[in-house]
Design brief:
Shape: globular
CATH architecture: Alpha-Beta Barrel
Largest sheet: 8 strands, parallel, barrel
Number of strands: 12
Distance between the termini: 36 Å
CATH superfamily: Aldolase class I
Radius of gyration: 20 Å
Strand order of the largest sheet: 1-4-5-8-9-10-11-12
Helix content: 25-40%
Structural class: alpha/beta
Bound molecules: ligand PBG
Order of helices and strands: HEEEHEHEEEHEHEHHEHEHHEH
CATH topology: TIM Barrel
Strand content: 15-25%
Length: 328
């Protein structure tokens, strides 16, 4: 009790503060999302994500080498699919010579020890901008899961270390696990987007990949029949528990900062590592505020990342990874 206990003694100078720090960020905490496009010589800034780029495969090589040199050891791949290759079933997603499959090989050539994770969901390949196959205005569950299994297998065959299903269909983790086992990919892991909310924070990402749901008759305008309702908490625990039972190696909560209560609860109940996705809208908000001189970019960035880790994240997928690691 005061004055015997004076809490400020542990804050007197930076030396003691650093000694008692409870949460410490390291390059090992990060997963770097990468956007890949067809073409040559392309490093294309995403308008709603300042200083973040889509790369063609030739320039991806340098970027990945730079990440590795910075100590960043894992990437999460997303591809921007040309319109003429989009359909309702994601046929292009299993093309052994598709952009994703070539991107995996390109990265493994550039940085053989880089952990390559791939997005598994149909939206970049869907004419309708949905994560699954649509029939009569409904995003079908089980046919979509079959397509996702083939997609995950195709990524494993191309050399992916982890597949990351971001679609929120029911039962996909178990089916993907079985497909990988049946094809002797028992060491390919699954990072499950377990508590993924139907969030308005994904806007800039959908700009980056041109993957937003289309505005057409009989096509759902949002993803609320598969992604979670932001009002719900217990449902996140159920989703996480089921994904772990089905074989997820890593579970994920997404978005990050607005959902840190969920991160803590998921961390408390999980015996597998928990990843958090600090999403595109979170990135865009800080970039916009900093560009206006309203927030100190680097200080707020580090505070947000520390907060995500303190809440329970073992891994953070973040567009700030490179900037953050340079400051560590
Ligand atoms: C698609 C997917 C999305 C994100 C990752 N995978 C968007 C969506 O669900 O509509 C969002 C990432 C971000 O906003 O940074 N399955």
């Amino acid at each position: 009790m005061y004055p015997l206990r004076r809490n400020r003694r542990l804050r007197v100078n930076s030396t003691i503060r650093s000694l008692v720090q409870e949460t410490i960020l390291s390059p090992n905490d990060f997963i770097v999302p990468l956007f890949v496009v067809e073409g040559k010589g392309i490093k294309d800034e995403i308008p709603s994500m300042p200083n973040y780029y889509r790369y063609s495969l030739d320039l991806l090589t340098n970027e990945v080498k730079e990440l590795w040199q910075l100590g960043l050891k894992s990437v999460l791949l997303f591809v921007k699919v040309p319109d003429n290759l989009k359909d309702n079933k994601g046929a292009e997603a299993i093309n052994p010579n598709g952009l994703m499959q070539r991107a995996i090989k390109t990265i493994k050539d550039a940085a053989p020890d880089m952990l390559v994770m791939t997005d598994v969901a149909l939206d970049p390949y869907s004419v309708y901008g949905h994560d699954g196959i649509i029939e009569k205005g409904i995003v079908l569950n089980d046919p979509t899961v079959d397509a996702l299994c083939q997609m995950a297998l195709s990524h494993a065959q191309a050399g992916a270390d982890f597949v990351a299903p971001s679609d929120m269909m029911d039962g996909r983790i178990q089916s993907i696990r079985e497909t990988l086992e049946d094809n002797a990919f028992e060491n390919v892991g699954i990072m499950a987007y377990s508590a993924k909310y139907a969030s308005a924070f994904y806007g800039p990402f959908r700009d980056a990949l041109d993957s937003a749901p289309v505005d057409e008759k009989d096509i759902p305008k949002d993803k609320k029949t598969y992604q979670m309702d932001p009002h719900n908490r217990i449902e996140a625990l159920r989703e996480t528990r089921m994904d772990i039972e089905e074989g997820a190696d890593i579970v994920m909560v997404k978005p990050g900062l607005p959902y840190l209560d969920i991160v803590r609860e998921v961390k408390n109940m999980s015996e597998v590592p928990v990843a958090v996705y600090q999403v595109s809208g979170e990135y865009a908000m800080l970039k916009a505020a900093a560009a206006n001189g309203w927030l100190d970019h680097d200080a707020v960035m580090m505070e947000q990342l520390v907060s995500i880790k303190r809440a329970g994240a073992d891994l953070i997928a973040s567009y700030f990874a490179k900037d953050a690691v340079r400051l560590l």
